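Reviewers of the previous submission asked for a worked example of the structure-prediction workflow described in the proposal, so we include one complete record here. The input consisted solely of the amino acid sequence. No template or homolog information was supplied to the procedure at any stage.
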Amino acid sequence: MAVNYGSKRIVVGAHYGLRDWLSQRITAVLMALFTLVVLAQVLFSSGPIGYDKWAGIFAAQWMKVLTFVVIVSLLYHVWVGMRDVWMDYVKPVGVRLGLQVFTIAWLVGCAGWSVQVLWRL
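From that input alone, the workflow returned the following structure tokens.
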């Protein structure tokens, strides 16, 4: 007769932890590189930094696209982190689902706002 020690564990979502961990690192590196690019443009510009120079940095289409890619990376980075916080610390399923839906809605709104800001410069 077989003796069952402990409870049976059902593993769902195998390898999601690795994917999330890797996506956090990749998005963080992308954001750090973008910060260095913007910092270099600010440091190597001549004269005082005013609105005109700041808008000039983001006036080129490639810079707007790069900035938007970094913003999308930031939003995904935030989503992975907040989803993990909600899953780890909020136990009632309904409250957790509500917080996750609110987080998604907020991040989509931020993405829309960033499109408006970037393409108005």
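The radius of gyration is 21 Å. We consider this example representative of the routine output the project will generate in years two and three.
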